[in-house]
Specification:
Sodium/glucose cotransporter, mainly alpha
């Protein structure tokens, strides 16, 4: 145990909890609790989007990808940009017509109450499973620090994150995201400098070895319509197309991200936040991939065996090789990414639970203060649920790919029905529900019974949902709703 490092980590945990909790003062409405009163500037929302998109999976999983392979993951990141442009043009104008709290209110206006509950319920399952993997990822870092796999340390992180999210709501989420994003980026820069300082020959040697072994290769333009084409995770086609569909689903239909976009002052500010976040994301992923190549050279020079699982490579280097104090700061930065994402998930899960299920069930007749109390209790309930899911997520493989593949199974149905609602007029509620069911069942089959790469999941699920629902609209005779979108 290194007391100074642990002191730095403890000071961060206490400081960020106190900082986040102070935003709870004066909040008396659901708009303030779930949307921050729509007062946050666009640049803060942009950083919050980056923090929510990053998580511990990125911080510890991305270097492991470059260590074992190359920069091919950036092909997925280029797809993220295409998705942001699509969301700005197709989704945002609809979201800013009227005052909405969740993405799924659009589904009720377009199709009906059942679709709203189905899409909202699908989000709750999706986010709970994916966030459970992220909570488990924290245990990898904690186990390195404490030398144990006990879950008591995760309880501490979840409890502290719960406290300021419970108290401060969306305002606390956004501003703690800003602080935590800067902290883990600074931590990554410091660790990169330290790694290069411990490599004989520094960056020149990293560049030489990385070039010789094609570690810096980004694009794989191979295009042959064979079964192998769809099993390769990081090709140009799988990466860009898969990344585009994945991010259109996550940022355009999932409450975790849509809630941030709805927190902007207006549609223009929301669009600026969304597009600006991609620049930060690209720089961030590039830096973590460079760290992975540097770690490869470091272990190669010293003849050391890489730790297993591969996700331990970066946090284990930090704890074992960085100077005292700096190691504590960088580990605190990784925990910052975890807490940032967890707080966002808790608030979005609570907002969907209250706004899409509980409040409609009571007819909205209760006073605002009553629903605010329910929102806070929902936050506590989801905290306990995510911890439980984390306990069973230990055998799901690479944390980064496990989180992305779980999300991708469900994203296809969500994105497919949203595109139906925004791009077609003919399809009605029953046809849309049939399409979602077919898309979801197909993705379960593909996940568990085929070798198809996860980067294709959202495209396949979206296409199946959209096509099935549109065809069913010619079969099912449904009454047209009053136009209200």
């Amino acid at each position: 145990m290194r007391i100074f490092d642990l002191g730095v980590i403890l000071a961060y945990l206490i400081g960020i909890t106190v900082f986040g909790a102070r935003f709870g003062k004066g909040q008396s409405t659901l708009k303030e609790y779930f949307l921050g009163g729509r007062e946050a500037p666009w640049w803060a929302i942009a950083f919050s989007i980056v923090s929510a998109e990053t998580s511990t999976l990125t911080v510890i999983g991305t270097p492991a990808l470059a260590y074992a392979g190359d920069f091919g993951f950036l092909q997925v990141v280029f797809g993220y940009l295409l998705a942001r442009i699509l969301i700005s043009v197709v989704f945002l104008p609809t979201y800013f017509r009227g005052e909405m709290y969740t993405a799924y209110e659009v589904m009720q206006r377009r199709f009906g109450v059942r679709i709203r509950k189905l899409t909202a319920g699908l989000f709750l399952v999706l986010r709970a499973l994916a966030e459970g993997v992220r909570v488990f990822a924290i245990s990898i870092v904690i186990s390195i620090i404490l030398g144990t796999g006990e879950m008591s340390s995760i309880v501490l992180i979840v409890a502290l994150t719960l406290f300021y999210t419970f108290e401060g709501g969306m305002t606390a989420v956004i501003w703690t995201d800003v602080v935590q994003m800067f902290l883990y980026v600074i931590g990554a820069v410091i660790s990169l400098i330290v790694i290069l300082g411990q490599i004989d020959g520094g960056w020149a040697e990293v560049s030489r070895i990385g070039t010789e072994l094609n570690k810096f290769r980004v694009f794989d333009f191979g295009f042959e319509l064979t079964p192998e084409f769809f099993t390769k995770t990081y090709s140009f086609w799988a990466g860009v197309i898969g990344g585009c569909f994945l991010t259109t689903a996550s940022h355009g239909t999932e409450q975790l991200m849509v809630q941030r976009l709805l927190s902007a002052r207006d549609e223009t500010e929301s669009r600026k936040a969304l597009l600006a976040s991609w620049v930060v994301i690209f720089v961030q992923f590039s830096m973590f991939l460079v760290i992975g190549v540097c770690l490869f050279v470091f272990y190669k020079q010293r003849g050391l065996a890489a730790p297993t699982p591969a996700d331990r490579i970066y946090p284990e280097f930090i704890w074992n090789y960085l100077p005292h104090g700096i190691a504590g700061l960088v580990i605190a930065a990784i925990l910052a990414a975890a807490m940032s994402n967890l707080s966002a998930a808790l608030n979005s899960l609570a907002s969907t639970t209250v706004m899409d299920f509980y409040k409609p069930m009571t007819g909205g007749r209760k006073p605002e203060e009553f629903y605010l109390r329910i929102a806070k209790f929902a936050t506590l309930g989801w905290g306990a649920a995510l911890f439980g899911i984390a306990l069973v997520a230990r055998n799901w493989g690479s944390v980064l790919q496990a989180g992305l593949s779980i999300a991708s199974i469900l994203y296809g149905s969500l994105l497919g029905v949203f595109l139906l609602g925004l791009l077609t007029k003919r399809t009605r509620e029953n046809a849309a529900m049939v399409g979602m069911t077919v898309g979801f069942v197909l993705m379960l089959y593909i996940k568990f019974f085929t070798p198809i790469a996860w980067t294709w999941y959202v495209l396949i699920g979206t296409s199946a949902t959209f096509a099935t629902a549109y065809l069913m609209s010619f079969v099912l005779a449904e009454k047209e709703l009053e136009p209200n979108v």
